[in-house]
Records
---
Amino acid sequence: MTQYYYAPASTGNFSVGFDLLGAAFEPVNGQLLGDVLEIRAECAQSHLSLSGRYHHQLPTDTDHNLILRCYQLFQQRLGKELPGLELHLHKELPVGSGLGSSACSIVVACYAFNHYFGEPLSKPDLLQLMAEAEGGVSGSVHYDNVAPSYLGGLQLMLPGSSRLSRALPWFDHWRVVLCYPGTTLSTKAAREAIPPQLPLATCIDFAAGLSRFISAMYVQDEAEALAALQDVVAEPARALLMPELPALRQALTGLGVAHLGISGAGPTVFALCSSEQIAEQAAAYLAAHYEKNQDAMTHICRLAPQGARTLKDPTQCS
Ligand SMILES: Nc1ncnc2c1ncn2[C@@H]1O[C@H](COP(=O)(O)OP(=O)(O)OP(=O)(O)O)[C@@H](O)[C@H]1O
Ligand SMILES: N[C@@H](CCO)C(=O)O
């Protein structure tokens, strides 16, 4: 019987935690915003077919698709050969968008294989495998998309700890408008824009912003958390890749939006809003002024408390 698996979109960095903070999101209207993988049957040789709004952005040769790459990595990690699988991917996240598209496919694939074969890998081992697979795409291992997409919520990475990451408190009334303009930015190229070394003063500002944000989230001081949201690492370096940002920020601030940041490596932006009403205005503004072609999309989201999972109602996928 076909099994359906889902993993949500994610925003890496969240302005104050370059490579260390990431959040999973879901549209408030109940739509799915993430990739769905079907395991249809076992067969002699693994085979992948594609559908979904953004499948045209993927390599036509499915041997280069991350889903099949993850199946190889999963078998290598187990140290044994597994049966071939007939797989189908519903690609619902645009590639090179800043919504953690490659991470989403990696997470749904690794989660699905582990579930299908009776959970041979522990949660931390699976997360590590996901991060390594993501590192193969972006040029360096970072967990800020795979961890929230796998585990859900707002996740703080804990490098060096066996926990790998920890879910932080959130504000339930916060809404996040995600607007993807329909154009592409390669994560690898956006990472290369960031200088390999930063001045000490920037390092201190970065640590201060992240500490201020995390402590404010724990004590639920909303004004302090919002005031802390300033990107001193990625945004200054990536500003040239996203020249519209200052004008968008000015207009959205006028509408009452609390913060506008780059989602992951861009070009998607996220507008953090303290009410549904402001989020609706922000979504209308971004759809009118930042969407550039028919691939573009804008969603009003809340935090997705659950990450990767089996899907009970497959009629939800396109
Ligand atoms: N299933 C898949 N999903 C996404 N990308 C894939 C997949 N299979 C192969 N790829 C390739 O992986 C690369 C992903 O590039 P990149 O890391 O820039 O995008 P991304 O992960 O979608 O970006 P972001 O995290 O900013 O959304 C592309 O070259 C794409 O063709
Ligand atoms: N932290 C990563 C996320 C990529 O989606 C970056 O900004 O490069």
Note: Residues 12-13, 18-19, 98, 100, 142, 144-145, 187, 190-191, 234, 264-265 surround L-homoserine (ligand 2) (CB under 6 Å).
---
Amino acid sequence: MEKLNRNTWKESKKYPVKVLQFGEGNFLRAFVNWQIDKMNKETDFNGGVVVAQPIEFGLIDKLNEQEGLYTLFLQGIKNEEAVREHSVIDCINYGINPYANYDQLLEVTENPELRFIISNTTEAGITFEENDRLSDSPQKSFPGKLTALLYHRFNTFAGAEDKGFVILPCELIDRNGEKLKEIVLKYIELWNLELGFKEWVLQSNTFCCTLVDRIVTGYPRDTIDEITTELGYKDELVVVGEQFHLWVIEGPQWISDEFPTNQAGLNVKVVNDMTPYRTRKVRILNGAHTAMTPVCYLYGLDTVGDSMKDEVTRDFIERLIFDEIIPTLDLPEEELKSFASAVLERFMNPYVNHYLLSIALNSMSKFKTRDLPTLIEYHGRTGELPRRLVFSLSALIALYKGKRDSEEINLQDDDHVMELYSSLWKDYDGSEDRIREIVTTVLAYEKNWELDLTIIPGLTDMVTEFLVKIERSGMKVAIKDVTKISLGN
Ligand SMILES: NC(=O)c1ccc[n+]([C@@H]2O[C@H](COP(=O)([O-])OP(=O)(O)OC[C@H]3O[C@@H](n4cnc5c(N)ncnc54)[C@H](O)[C@@H]3O)[C@@H](O)[C@H]2O)c1
Ligand SMILES: O=P(O)(O)OC[C@@H](O)[C@@H](O)[C@H](O)[C@H](O)CO
């Protein structure tokens, strides 16, 4: 069978490069590149993308083998109808591995038409590495690489005011654009770069904070054989996502003229303040994902969809959102409820297999950013603890034991987190005292939480009580403590 490339896919087009993208991952390809593809086909945007691989190993070679092409499946509800559609995205001209071809990356910034820098380097990507140097090829961190590229651009065009970039980071961290700019400025200091460059970075470049939303499950490893037969060609970069999408960009309105997403009918909002959108999405959608994962997985389920089909786990998820997360948010209640209902519908999407274990990646830091604020706010507002969220924290500690009955769980988290749990569960003797010790150590683990959670009144007791139940009776029995409350009342 033929492989997908520009020879076999004759209708593909090439566009002049206007975008440099850091990240070749599933999300950017199913979200940003799909939007650029739409703008190319429905507006006069006419922009091609060069993709740089942010770390040494990744998919760039595969992307280049397919000459930038890949197939995107979008599956879910569109205009109230179930839609499953696919298309070949052709906006990526080529990819660069800066670890092998750094000069090629520098050259991209010499193109006067280059206008946008877009990134998604995961939550781990926007960091400051004090050992990064301007002379490195490349720098280790993404902001280090970006600073070096900006400097090359500044020198190439002698600081021309109109040669700056619109920078659109998509990392799911709070105020991503500001954080990125802050670190770029730190590198300017560290590398003693001239004031004129700093002024150019600040005045001629627009760093936007953005919030992205689309559930992307990635490469369909379970169904790739059927998909290949259906497509009639081999594509190693097939990506699957839902129909829903939203991109909120905090920045000046002129961005919509240069990046005409609205003309292409895309759900992109350019706003003055993205905070309410971010809080709502991260606390409700990502918060529910992260909180449901240990509970539903230990209950015996594998996907978000299955968790929504089971009456008990579905009740857990719904009550968690409506009774514990929403009351801690300050947006209009009706708006929050309607957003939450839409999220629950997306969780039920029958066309997308969203594996709980993929959501479980780095769960400790995700619980901190996506769920802990709800727990603290709920306690602050009501003087009580949100029982389902606390139950989920107990389930998280149980999950990191690394076993579902006799099955090993393949968990991935920072090394220090994995080491903490392996040392804690190693000496487990089944006693309640040992469970309390484990809970106390995890809650006091400030390296993850950035505060000592044992100071929250009643939290250690409640997490211990639930964990004892989960350990002794199993999740199917233990969950009744937090579902029957809502079912019975
Ligand atoms: N998949 C989704 O549904 C979805 C939706 C919205 C947001 N996101 C966000 O997008 C991010 C990426 O998701 P994905 O599905 O594309 O994953 P992926 O594994 O397909 O891609 C990860 C990308 O991040 C880069 N990367 C990984 N570690 C890095 C590091 N330490 N420094 C710099 N770059 C690094 C990789 O090179 C790769 O380009 C997630 O962290 C998530 O927060 C994902
Ligand atoms: O992608 P992660 O691993 O950061 O988080 C898992 C999910 O919560 C996330 O991917 C959501 O599906 C996404 O944020 C929806 O827009």
Note: The domain at 17-271 is CATH 3.40.50.720 (Rossmann fold).
